[in-house]
Sequence to fold (221 residues):
Amino acid sequence: MRILVVEDEKKIASFIKRGLKEEGYAVDVAYDGEEGYRLICENDYDVILLDLMLPKLDGLTLCRQIRQEKIQTPIIMLTAKSAVADKVTGLDAGANDYLTKPFAFEELLARIRVLLRTAGQPATKLQVADLTLDLLTHTVTRAGTEIPLSAKEFALLEYLMRNAGTVVTRTMIYEHVWDIDFDTSTNVIDVYINYLRNKIDAGHEKKLIHTVRGRGYMLKD
Ligand code: CA
Fold:
């Protein structure tokens, strides 16, 4: 899943980016409100972490602006302020959640998982047929057998499982699994789909990953 961090304090931004990447998220960073706005308009993020005090365009104004434009991406406000009035203002501006700096990274991860929660599934686990993906332990099992995956394979499988039963195009995949540096001219997505097929479906009579000719891929029971 792909996350945008809008944070002008470079140290905090790189700390958050590194931590999220270690968890398998694709992460872009914007260092001021205007850059954040531009990236939000250009890309389809799954979650936005938004600092309140930002140069050029503050977090509250940015939040109101994108909600006015009907962009419904979940937003977590990050701020040094902890006053109740500020939290209320942030939530009223359209933020989904609120985290006061400094925060424990585990808490940030837990709140992101809640916002990404797929309907009908717990926030920490995804299940399709006999395939289970555990977001806490980063383990994948099929029919009870653990399948080792690389971080990118895990991220791709997570995206396919969150969208189980619907067609995902290559464009959707690179927008949600890779970050802004992704080279769209390569066939890396097909390569990774093949890696996943070999690990998830090989040796099983029932295949879960399907090619939808001319459109993309679908994971389904
Ligand atoms: Ca700031």
